[in-house]
Amino acid sequence: MKRILITGAAGFLGSHLCDRFIRDGYHVSGMDNLITGRLKNIEHLFGLENFEFYHHDVSKFIHVPGKLDYILHFASPASPIDYLKIPIQTLKVGSLGVHNCLGLAKAKGARILIASTSEVYGDPTVHPQTEEYWGNVNPVGPRGVYDEAKRFQEAITMAYNNFHGLETRIVRIFNTYGPRMRLNDGRVLPAFIGQALRGEDLTIFGDGSQTRSFCYVDDLVEGIVRLLHSDYAYPVNIGNPSEISIAEFAEEIIKLTGTKQKVIYKDLPIDDPKQRQPDITKAQSILKWQPLIDRAEGLKKTYAFFKSLSQEELMETDHYNFDKYIIK
Ligand code: UDP
Hints:
By secondary structure, this protein is of the alpha/beta class. The protein has helices at residues 12-23, 80-85, 87-108, 144-164, 188-198, 217-228, 246-257, 281-286, 295-307, 311-315; strands spanning 3-7, 27-32, 51-55, 70-73, 111-117, 168-173, 176-177, 202-205, 211-213, 215-216, 236-238, 243-245, 263-266.
């Protein structure tokens, strides 16, 4: 039986990856410090013989007994509101955390795939974004703690590949959505759906002309599995190129949920990228991958999940102090 370690296992993406590798017959060791992850996401796996869970912070030395064939490094806060709230942990997990994971991979002779992000492109001046584009990142802005940690993470991963001959893979993940997103993580989709379900107005930041391209989680997981099993060590974009403005997206959510509320406009956060769309030519040619689930289908499944939450979960809206990051 192949053995895989998944860091960030209790998070949105990590938990879907645990499910996928369990389904594929692997022994899965999940690791999470539960700062932004939730045990509820992997509760159904406890008690399985081929699943175990470590409550551990990957920024500290990692010990996993026995053999390991693969490591997926998915631990990190990943929404603007989270990394604004916990900037130092965000920097640590992308630097000390990845270093520990790479060291563990080297010690075990394991192949490692690390989760990078479209944020390495910053507020992009090239559209759509190809992997060759080096990006437009403000290192000292509020998003710098995430963007630069992820850029460092890519650099150290390539260094382990070149210097130690470690088998490494880098996925650049674009906006992804689906069941198990945290309702209060501040991301636009849970924000809008949560607001609709609570009977609040939908908050558009800026004038809503900024664009994003949303990928359903099952498509993303399939792309990651294919990349892990490929022999390609350079970064690969995985995302859905179907681009939409945030204003149009709000209209889609209003239609989907049937809410009678309206949209209201708030200030745009500093360094909020104006446009984002993955060029997935590489994934198509190297991995023979492309997204299969369109937004209408994906949003239906995601809405069904949010609708199933309890009233208590629905009202759990941590209101972080976001104001100082907003342009006045
Ligand atoms: N956004 C918004 N209203 C919200 C939350 C987010 O208009 O309540 C905007 C945000 O400013 C950004 C886009 O939606 O332009 C996507 O934000 P998200 O935090 O989901 O992810 P990002 O792609 O910015 O990392």
